[in-house]
From TrEMBL:
Domain of life according to the entry: Bacteria
Domain Fucosyltransferase C-terminal: 228-311
UniProt-recorded name of the protein: Fucosyltransferase C-terminal domain-containing protein
InterPro entries assigned to the protein according to its UniProt record, in alphabetical order: Glyco_tran_10_C (IPR055270), GT10-like_C_sf (IPR038577)
Signal peptide extent: none
Gene3D superfamilies in the cross-refs: Glycosyl transferase family 10, C-terminal domain
Length: 344
């Protein structure tokens, strides 16, 4: 007879998400996220589990680890296994959730075939891993929740500039990283000198980049600081560069969806399986242009035209269609709930 799951704990990976703050949009971490749609996915998961008679809290809210039936552990590092050993947690009760790609957490990927054997299920966005081993279960990351009622407001916002990029100054030595491409884009528009592009994010124009991995200081006059609210800022531009950390199949970040939801047109360098998930006419594919001169000329040529309006319209239709279902917070919650049931 399979065990009844009553209590699930989440190990969120960040101290400021403990004490159930990961479920509270008004918490300190909720405010620090500046409009990033992160906590909504965990709120949706908590609510779905509650509907099925299962408690979900951050692990520190339980007085005794022994009362926890299943652990959800975000990202696997040596420190996670030290934590499990200190608290005598059986790895068979732990479902790892792999979110970051190899360039962000190389240890997790380098030793995945070893540590994954300790667990009954590993949740991953990678279709290759799912095909290779039945222990791996697919979930679609970048779950995104948007306010349908704010779309017209976003459309009407005055535009500050042609295009923008909002990312932190990061670096990686792992082949395939796209941090260097972000820097190339920044330098290109800086050298043009015609003020078509703005940059937002942490770690630019400062010597303090230690917390961003192997990144080095990067100074540029196109940096406009830290946005107070990501959605509000996206809505102030005609186009948004959506250059992810890395683009293996299945790895999606939410910027492309946020651009569509705020009336901006995403310039997206997509993973190889994009045609299965996102319509090609809902974004501008960065890889279809020989260089940034050609891309910029194209952007300038379509602003204010029916062609530009069609990109906006198609993106909005996609977000409100069944095809977008894999990237909803509801699907995220259902995928994890299903894995919890399978782990019994």
């Amino acid at each position: 007879m399979s065990k009844v799951i009553k209590k699930v704990a989440i190990y969120p990976g960040y101290a400021n998400m403990l004490k159930d703050q990961v479920f509270d949009l008004d918490s300190e971490v909720g405010r620090q996220l500046r409009g990033l749609p992160v906590l909504q996915r965990y709120i949706a998961l908590r609510d779905l589990l509650a509907q099925n008679g299962i408690e979900l809290h951050t692990y520190d809210m339980y007085s005794d680890p022994k009362e926890i039936d299943v652990w959800l552990m975000l990202e696997m590092k040596p420190s996670r296994y030290l934590f499990m050993a200190r608290h005598l947690i059986n790895p068979k009760k732990v479902i790892p959730i792999v979110i970051e790609p190899e360039i962000v957490l190389p240890w997790q990927w380098r030793y995945m075939r070893l540590w994954s054997r300790l667990h009954p299920i590993v949740l991953t966005w990678s279709p290759e891993l799912v095909r290779s081993d039945k222990r791996f279960h697919r979930f679609y990351y970048a779950p995104f929740l948007f306010d349908v009622n704010k779309y017209e407001y976003y459309l009407a916002k005055p535009k500050k500039n042609l295009c923008m990029l909002m990312q932190s100054n990061k670096a990686s030595r792992v082949p395939g990283e796209l941090y260097s491409l972000r820097r190339e884009i920044i330098r290109y528009y800086e050298k043009r000198g015609d003020n078509l592009f703005d940059l937002y994010g942490f770690g630019w124009n400062t010597p303090n980049t230690q917390h961003l991995g192997p990144s080095e200081p990067f100074y540029t006059p196109v940096h406009k600081g830290i946005a107070d609210d990501k959605s509000e800022t996206f809505a102030e531009y005609q186009f948004v560069f959506c250059i992810q950390n890395f683009v293996p199949a299945g790895d999606y970040e939410s910027d492309v969806f946020m651009a569509m939801a705020t009336g901006a047109v995403p310039i997206f360098l997509p993973p190889a399986d994009v045609d299965e998930l996102i319509p090609a006419d809902a974004y501008i594919n960065y890889s279809h242009f020989q260089n940034l001169d050609e891309l910029t000329a194209y952007l300038q040529s379509i602003v204010g035209t029916e062609h530009y309006a069609a990109y906006r319209r198609r993106g909005w239709e996609y977000l409100n269609s069944e095809k977008f279902r894999p990237f909803t917070v509801q699907q995220f919650a259902e995928d994890i709930h299903r894995s919890i049931q399978l782990a019994r």
